[in-house]
Design a protein that fits this description.
The protein is α/β, with parallel strands linked by helices and 339 residues long. It has an 8-stranded mixed β-sheet with strand order 6-7-8-3-9-10-12-11, with helices on both faces. The radius of gyration is 21 Å and the shape is globular. The N and C termini lie far apart (50 Å).
Length: 339
Amino acid sequence: MADYEKLLEVKDLSVEYHSSGRVVHAVNGLDLSIGEGETLGFVGETGAGKTSTALAILRILPQPLSKVTGGELIYKGKDLMEYDAKTMRQIRGKEIAMIFQDPMTSLDPVKRVSDQIEEMLRLHEKLGKKELHEKALDMLEVVGIDRNRGNEYPHQFSGGMKQRVVIAIALSCNPALLIADEPTTALDVTIQAQVLELMKELKEKFNMSMIMITHDLGIVAEICDNVAIMYAGKVVEYGTVREIYNTVAHPYTQALFDSIPVLDEEQDELKVIKGFTPDPTNIPSGCAFHPRCPYATERCGTDVPPEFSLSDTHRVRCFLFEDGKAKTLAQAVSMEKEG
């Protein structure tokens, strides 16, 4: 039995960027966890702090402009923040791997694709030259690319095929945790579906956990077990896919769902979330969402809401749920009006 309950636990993580005398508060006391074999959807608008969280987990935040100012990153029961640089290099790729947003810029244009997979294998596997090459070609086949294309260069591949190569590199050392940072953003819709289906299959085949960073709630429904909704560097709602989709609690989560077009209804205009995402150099006091929230009270502008549990797996940061009676946003708003 493993001597840890969760594969990864992020506790009270805070990340700052310093530039031109300004401090950008990218992540603000973030908490989340992921179990073995679980896929966690990490959802939020651009600038919510999703990618900064991923870079912090891997400890590859850009230096010297950024730093982790607080929190713990507990991986397999040990804090990643306590490891030295050499140990972290051994963990990256072997234990925790990452797929970045744009496959066009993730690959070295002057190296054959098989050489790029071999480069990752060479860092973590003790294999001979021939074995390295054969395993690299095997990984191409795993992601649906003919092994005979191993000697080709990235420019000879389509966007979807490039992303498959990136996935092959990330999975070559059979990591326990894969972080996928909007892996289908640069691809057209048809190719997106193919890549997502491939990732689902490979997750099962390699028996790994995955954090899927996205702003697309459709992708979350397709591939994730649990969902963390992030706003202004903090998780505001966390639950299973069923809970998040069927019993929405946080006003921001509801606003995200409301902004999705309904294909079988006539709509004169799309619903949008009023206002703007907060300036990360000047996060609003209290609940960061209160300037955009239709249910905000005076208290929301001064006090930071703690997490309230709606079930064993469903948590929300909103004062509407303080009395513990309501389980959905609709119930909470109704009780507020009656009260």
